[in-house]
Design goal:
The strands form 2 sheets. A 5-stranded antiparallel β-sheet has the order 3-1-8-9-14, with no helix packed on it. The radius of gyration is 17 Å and the shape is globular. A hairpin with a 2-residue loop joins strand 10 and strand 11. It is about 10% helix and about 35% strand. By secondary structure, the chain is mainly beta. It has one domain: SOS response associated peptidase-like (hypothetical protein yedk fold), CATH 3.90.1680. It contains 4 helices and 14 strands.
Length: about 230
């Protein structure tokens, strides 16, 4: 599953690259985030179907808008399996609330020995441009929260994420605008959730991404290690 991403690029630069306007309540001093842990429930840049001309921040972990006490809500809604989007009560009300989740790349674990810690791999596109991940969102008390959709791993990602065999839904230039259209049907949505069919750049990086006792929010985490 996708629990770690990189968000080092300034949101202002992302908006310019994507041709979107910024909609944020206050300008935050940009601090590059090389390893963003979803379990910290961070803010990430998104483009929401309900307002597709704007790039804004939503918080990672979807909180259904009927929940009375978010702190008491214990479900792990960082990711949503796309195959179950119309079945699970946590997600089925939000399939029309689609969004882009804009990241520089994402991390996946690679198991070499069950007795050893997993290796960490960083995945991005070859052009080093933003990756657009497919997500769904909820607006809770005026604030947006989201989940990243996942799908079966393609051949390349199955070799990297060799234990979980999953990958995030990645949208390319052919379909990312369609993802935000209000008339998108459930069947077509599922077609867009198919495994990504373009090559990605994946390489081993420094150890510790999946160890909370190690600070991996450093530039080296998005660079390949020398073998």
């Amino acid at each position: 599953m996708c629990y770690h991403v990189a968000a080092a690029t300034d949101i202002k630069d992302l908006a310019q690259t994507l041709g979107k306007e910024l909609k944020i309540k206050r300008r935050l001093d940009h601090q590059p985030r090389y390893d963003v842990n979803g379990f910290d429930n961070p803010l990430l840049p998104v483009v929401a179907a309900g307002d597709p001309d704007y790039l804004r921040y939503f918080r990672w972990r979807l909180i259904p808008n009927h929940i009375q006490d978010p702190k008491a809500y214990k479900a792990n809604t960082l990711n949503a399996r796309s195959e179950e989007i119309f079945e699970k009560s946590s997600y089925r009300a939000y399939w029309q609330n689609r969004c882009w989740v804009v990241v520089d790349g994402f991390f996946e674990p690679h198991v070499t020995d069950v007795k050893k810690p997993s290796e960490s791999y960083y995945i991005r596109n070859f052009e080093n441009e933003p990756l657009i991940l497919g997500g769904i969102y909820s607006v809770y008390e005026g604030k947006g929260t989201f989940a990243i959709l996942t799908t079966a791993a393609n051949e390349q990602m199955a070799e990297v994420h060799n234990e979980g065999q999953r990958m995030p839904v990645i949208l390319d230039e052919r379909n990312r605008e369609e993802w935000l259209r209000p008339d998108l049907t459930p069947d077509r949505m599922m077609e867009l959730c198919k495994p990504y069919d373009w090559p990605l750049l994946a390489y081993k990086t420094i150890e510790g991404v999946y160890n909370n006792r190690i600070n991996t929010n450093v530039p080296e985490v998005i660079l390949p290690v020398e073998v």
